[in-house]
Amino acid sequence: MPTKAPEDRYDAAPFVPEGAGLDALRKAAADCHGCPLHRAATRTVFGAGSTDARVMLVGEQPGDQEDRQGRPFVGPAGKLLDRALQDAGIDPAEAYVTNAVKHFKFTQAEPRKRRIHKAPSLREMTACGPWLAAELALVEPELIVILGATAGKALLGSSFRVGEVRGTVLEREIHGRPERLVPTVHPSSVLRAQDDEDRKAAYQGLVADLKVAARALG
Which of 100, 95, 94, 83 shows the shortest CA–CA distance to 56? Predict the structure, then answer.
């Protein structure tokens, strides 16, 4: 009987070094084969920021620009998020940003065509969970900001609905730690708004939610 490839086990835990610091974790994550997503992605996109950060922002997965550059939230959605954080009174430089899934999942009609984002499955999010657990254990944020439904499902389970709890402070146990969380929409949803009026309203809603996070931080 052939041996199962590591990625077919859908579990990143064997790739996560115990007791490692942030730099060592990032280096180890670069070689993660914990699920099949690593095959098509350019590279692992690990979290960025300081272990002293008071707030951790968790998104869904890297996008096209993040996959190319190897850093989270460097594309259009990341730039919008930085602006929204500043408008809410949170310094983006003092936040730790990461994603529930560390590889870019996409569809592509043919080579050289644009790579279209595809939402990760619950199985893929669960497989990547040990990396997020390791980041949380090291950073120990005072507050987690959940960016969108996929990140919420990764942290709080498949029944999570961002529209039901956005802009509120939740208290839950995450990966064995009591955490405070503020859910909001993913900044990419603001960019997808149909017209300028809708985009403006969506942006104001994002900022309002982030202001709740700012007040929770004190």
Answer: 95
